[in-house]
Amino acid sequence: MANIKEKRSENIEGNFYVDSSCINCGACYWVAPKTFELVSQQSAVVEQPALDDEDAAYRALLACPVNSIGVEKDSKVNKVIQELPYELEDGIFHCGYHAESSFGAASYFIKREKENFMVDSPRFVKQFANKLVELGGVEKHLLSHKDDIADTDKYWEVFNSKRYIHADDSIASTSDYEELMKGEDAFQIDDEIVVIPVPGHTKGSVCYLYQNKYLFTGDHLAFSKDLNHLYAFKTACWYDFDIQIQSMKKLLAYDFEYVLPGHGRPIKMSKEEMKASLIKCIEWMEN
Question: pLDDT averaged over the chain?
Answer without folding.
Answer: 95
